[in-house]
């Protein structure tokens, strides 16, 4: 499982110009089962994506498709982790990560 931290490199008005394409990118990868949660950071200095079911190399290829990356709007920090403890309701989500 991965936590992807996006940090904006451009002012919010520039970010907003690419949000629609970024959301379409997110939708494609939710449909593919790669992403399980995403959203903006508070304060709005970037975003966060939770990803699973990919190798690190495959995730890097996916992130390279993001319009935020292609257009130089955001940079990424990727943290890989193995969930060992989680709420019982999330067990089906994390079973493949064990």
From TrEMBL:
Alphabetized UniProt keyword annotations: Hydrolase
Pfam families according to UniProt: YCII (PF03795)
Organism in which the protein naturally occurs: Trinickia fusca
Tagged with keyword Hydrolase: yes
Keyword Hydrolase included in the entry's annotation: yes
One MF annotation (Gene Ontology) recorded for this entry: hydrolase activity
Protein family: Belongs to the YciI family.
Protein name: GTP cyclohydrolase
Residues spanning the signal sequence: none
Residue ranges of every copy of the YCII-related domain listed in the record: 1-81
